[in-house]
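Same chain as my last thread, 29 residues:
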Amino acid sequence: MFFPMEVLEMPSMNERWGPYLRCLHLEKE
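reply #2:
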């Protein structure tokens, strides 16, 4: 699952997916 940065900058998307995507990003690193 991949979201472009433009999508992450959208408030509604960032509010819903922000914490989840940050967890995935931390797990990858």
